[in-house]
Structures are given as C-alpha cells and as structure tokens.
Design goal:
globular, transmembrane helix
Length: about 475
C-alpha cells in the first residue's frame, strides 16, 4: 500500500504544481463551508418566493448540515478504499450539480431535497482533503503552510458565506447564492482532473463494512438532526430525548461493530494515538465555542448595536482578514519555530480574551472601541490555533488511514459546531426570556442573552486550553547518551 500511496498525487509533486493543486482542494472546501451560512441572510427572500412555513424554513440549512456532517466519516473511509482523488471528484460533481438544482428550485420541497444532495457532495469532497494535503506535502515546513491555507478556509468560510449571501441577494437574487458555485465548481473540476494524479485505494474488499457504514451514518444524521431542532423543541422535550437516545444507541452499536468486524469502517486502533484523539476532543470544544460566537455576533450587531445586514457582513470581515493573515502568512513559521503545541496554547489564550471582551460589550457599543479589538483577537487566535491543532491531529496518521483521519477531523468539526451553536442559542434565548420576565426592556434582555453566550464560550475555550496543555503536551525528547571520556 505504501508504494501506491506514494504514487498518489505524484504529478503535482514532480512538476511543482502542488500549490495550484492545493488551491483547487481549498476551493472545493470553501464552497462546502460557505454554503453552510450563505443562505442565512437570504432566508426571508426564500421563504417569500417558495412559500416556506416558519418551521419548514429551518430545513434549508438543516437538510444540508445533516447530510454534510452525517456522511463525512464514511466519505473519508471511502477515500482510503476507492482512492481520495476519485471521491473528491465525485463529491465536486454532485455538489455542483445540486447547486444548479438549488438555484432552479421551484417549490420548498425541491429546495430541501437539493440541499440534502448538495450536503452529500460537500461531505464527499471535504472528507478527503486533509488526507490529500498530508500526502501532497510530506516536508514539514511546506505541510505547515498547506495546512495553514486549509485552516483559513475552514475558519473563515462561515464569515465569507454571511457576507457573500447578503451582497448577492441584495444585488441579484437568492438564486445566485447557489448558481455562483457552478463556474467555480466547473473550473475546480477541470483543474483537479489535470493536477491530481490517479491513485488506487486499498479496495472495498480491504475495508468494506456496510453495516458499520449504515450505523454511523444513521447515528450522525440522527444526532445532528436532534441538535439543530433543540431550539424549537427544547432540551427536555420528548422529541430531543427520544431522537438523542436513538442517535447515541446507534453510535454505541457502531462502536461495538467496529470492535468485532474483520474489516471495520473506523478501525479503533486510530484512537491509540494520543495526539489524534486529543486533537479531536480539543477541536470539538474549540469549534463549539467559535460557531456560537459567529452567529451570536451577527445577532448582537443587528439587534443590539443596530447595524443593517450589509453593514453586519462587513463588520465581520476583520475576523476573516486576521485569520487569513495569520493562518496563511504566519502560522507555518510559528509552528516550525515554537512547535504546534505552544502555538495552539497561545492562540487559545487570545480566543479567551476576545470572547471575554465581547462578554462585557455594552448595548451602546462603539464598533471601533468595543467590538473591533475583540474580533481582531478572535481572528488572530483562531488563525493560530486551527493550523496547529490540525497538524497535531494528523501527525500520527498513517498513509493508509489518512483519509479516515481527515474524515474524522471534519466530522468532529461539524458535529461540534452544530452542538455548540444549539447549546449557546438555547442558553442565550433562555436568559433573554428570563430578563424580559423580570421587567428588562428588549434591548437589555437581548444583550444579557448574548453576553451570557460569550461568557460561556470563553469558559469552553478555557477548558480547551487546560485540556490541550495536559493532553497534547509533546513527549520530552530523549536525552543523548553522555560521552565516555577516554582513559
């Protein structure tokens, strides 16, 4: 298998086109991440044109997230078995075709189905990218730069989606938030066919686990569905408890299956790596807080500070800009000089500080004085933390399991983001309702809810910091034997 893996993507490596190949991979990832949030600003227009009910409108986002998060692990393993290039190309084709169907949607049901199919394509193309990057850039310094670029896409895609969705909907129409994927997808597909060399995976016979695939896909889809419906039904409702229990039961059955199967979908041996397991736990906590921050900040700027939709989109740009500068231009040098663990801890400290500042921002906040410094800290901290965490998580992945590790990392990110957003949204809304009941005016009540979300987010990152400091600490280097003096 090693020789087959080493041949993978050899053409870019030999011709010096690896960085263009990386751009293609990142373009695919960016489309997938952007489409999680690009519909947010367009939902009122979509509801008006297609006749969505208020509860049904949530499925424009929910259908995409359920398919995306639910199929990432399966997509990563299929990349190892069938070849990561093949899975990436298939995902790109499905995503681009589904984007056309989304833009042409004539009924609410047609849009929901097309969004689900779009999520399938997003899962397939995204799941294998990190594994392809690890193979494409074996040299540590170049790999750090490549992972930094991918981390920028992962970290800033949501902000870019919010900004792009508002601008496109205002200038053209909501249909074009989907149609814009088509030329990008076609160009990426043409370049990928030229730049990514063919590879053969280990074959389905070496790891085909249909029952395991069904169990984990059902478990992840059920759990993500449960999470994204929490705000509507509540944590203690029969709906949440019932579907949550079903998802956990399916997940437990999957783990039992993996321990006994001859060719498991997720070989449990991968969790023997302290760095891979620890990095996934840290990523889950980190993304849970940061997804909540992004959506909370949009609502805070709109409903408390009073910015319009377009102004809010532009107000979030400094975060994406800071992430870009740090992850693309600085993080690789920092990781090489100081080590990923130290850079990760420093980034987490900045994130705690940024969230803490937002947690005390007033209702009459000045954007320049009260909000911008926090956004700069958060962008810088995330730009440092994400590349370091990804590098730590992928460091022990073998060539045979790099697609699986990539899919696991992306699954952790999506599920953590969905859970964090649901938890912070519910706690924020509950706090707002309590304050309204105590006689606070609407602005003060909303502010109190958002401040609570920021403070809880800061607490989650602080827990992440402590965990990373203990669990991801590098092993001490072995001391060189002392020379014996000549007699």
């Amino acid at each position: 298998m090693g020789s087959v893996t080493n041949r993978a993507l050899r053409s870019p490596s030999m011709t010096g086109s690896r960085w263009l190949a990386l751009a293609v991979l990142c373009a695919g990832a960016l489309m997938a991440i952007v489409d999680e949030t690009i519909v947010a600003v367009s939902l009122p227009a979509i509801q008006r044109d297609l006749g969505f009910s208020q509860s049904g409108l949530a499925w424009v986002t929910g259908a995409y997230l359920i398919a995306f998060a639910g199929l990432l692990l399966l997509g990563g393993r299929l990349g190892d078995l069938l070849g990561r290039r093949r899975v990436f190309l298939a995902g790109l084709v499905v995503f681009t075709a589904a984007s056309v169907l989304c833009g042409l949607a004539w009924t609410s049901g047609a849009l929901v189905v097309a969004r689900f199919v779009q999520g399938i394509g997003a899962a397939a193309l995204t799941a294998v990218i990190l594994g392809m990057i690890v193979t494409l850039f074996p040299e540590p310094r170049e790999r750090a730069k490549a992972i930094g670029a991918f981390s920028f896409v992962q970290a800033s895609g949501g902000t870019i989606g919010t900004l792009a969705g508002g601008l496109i909907t205002q200038v053209v129409s909501w249909h074009w938030i989907f149609f814009v994927n088509v030329p990008i997808g076609l160009v990426a597909l043409g370049l990928a066919l030229r730049l990514l060399d063919r590879e053969r995976g280990t074959g389905l016979g070496a790891g085909a686990d249909v029952p395991g695939a069904a169990l984990v896909t059902g478990a992840l889809m059920t759990l993500v569905y449960t999470i994204i419906r929490v705000e509507e039904h509540g944590w203690a409702s029969a709906h949440t408890l019932g579907f949550g229990a079903l998802g956990l039961a399916l997940l437990a059955a999957f783990l039992v299956r993996q321990a006994k199967a001859a060719n498991p979908l997720l070989p449990l041996r991968v969790f023997r790596s302290r760095r891979l397991s620890g990095a996934n736990v840290a990523l889950f906590l980190l993304v849970a807080s940061m997804f909540g921050f992004m959506f909370t900040t949009v609502l805070y700027l709109r409903e408390v500070v009073g910015l319009g939709a377009r102004e809010t989109g532009f107000a979030m740009v400094p975060t994406a800009a800071a992430i870009a500068v740090v992850s693309l231009g600085v993080s690789a040098r920092l990781n090489t000089r100081f080590g990923e663990w130290r850079v990760l801890l420093a980034g987490l400290v900045l994130l705690v500080a940024g969230l803490a500042l937002l947690g005390i921002a007033p209702a009459d906040a000045s954007y320049i004085a009260d909000v911008l410094p926090a956004l700069a800290l958060l962008g810088t901290g995330f730009g440092m933390a994400m590349p370091a965490l990804m590098a730590l998580g992928m460091a022990d992945a073998t060539p045979e399991d790099s697609g699986l590790a990539s899919g696991l990392f992306n699954t952790t990110q999506q599920v953590g983001g969905a859970l964090g957003l649901a938890v912070l949204a519910v706690l924020s809304a509950t706090r707002t309702t309590t304050l309204l009941g105590q006689g606070s005016d609407e602005t003060a009540a909303l502010l109190g809810g958002y401040q609570l979300a920021y403070r809880i987010g800061a607490g989650i990152v602080l827990v992440t910091l402590v965990f990373a400091a203990l669990a991801l600490r590098p092993a001490p280097a072995a001391k060189a034997p002392r020379a014996v003096a000549a007699a």
